[in-house]
Amino acid sequence: MPPGSDRWPPALREQLPVPSRPAGVLIPIMERGGGLSVLLTQRSAALKHHAGQVSFPGGGMEEHDVDVLATALRETHEEVGIEPQYVAVIGYLGPMGTTTGYAVTPVVGLVSDEAELRVDPTEVEFTFEVPLEFLLDQGNQRAVERRFLGHTLAMIEFQYEGQRIWGATAQMLLNLRKNLIK
Asked: What kind and span of H or E run contains 26?
């Protein structure tokens, strides 16, 4: 199991698919007005999975993707219009298992201020940015409990300007913070 899957209780892990389908997401770091922010999307309410949830642009690897970087860049271009040449890859976070059977590798990239956002409304309702400084401050996270498949899970979430950032997206942000403050 990929790292991150161990955050679930053993009895729950037995109920979930083994995270084996590769996926890539981009954690887009935007430079705005002298500060850095992280671009997030609210997924379309019409989507089959995770409708209306906050996420990073990304998705499952397709046959023509040579690696998860190619997947993350392709999906980012499809969902929010950022062209790959405007992304300077900073690094990767460890793969994370999801409850839907994906092994998601987050790619951290600095997005040029020349990049233009063009949201695909079939996939994304809207985008928003959260200052990196906000996400790095532990005081801005909160512990919550959530029931899932008969189990109570302790989770961390962020609330920013009315947006709830939780689940795998919040976990990836925690991993990003951990790596940035090493």
From this structure: strand 21-32
Give the amino acid at 116: E
Expressed as residue numbers, the domain containing 106 is 5-131
Question: Any bridge partners for residue 136, and if so which?
Answer: none
List 43's β-bridge partners, or say none: 124
- The span from the CA of 96 to the CA of 117, in Å, is 27
Q: Which of 13-27, 50-64, 76-90, 168-182 has the highest mean pLDDT?
A: 76-90
Report yes or no on 138 lying in a domain.
Answer: no
The single-letter code of the amino acid at 64 is H
**Do residues 100 and 81 touch, judged by C-beta distance below 8 A?**
no
Ranges of beta strands (E only) in 132-172 are 141-148, 151-160, 163-165
Instruction: Establish how many alpha carbons lie within 13 A of residue 130's alpha carbon, considering only the half-sphere containing its beta carbon.
Output: 25
Query: Tell me, what amino acid is at 43?
Result: R
The tokens for 142 are 């909160």
CA distance 94 to 43: 23
pLDDT tens string 59-110 = 999 999 999 999 999 999 999 999 999 999 999 999 987 777 788 999 999 9
CATH of the domain at 103: 3.90.79.10
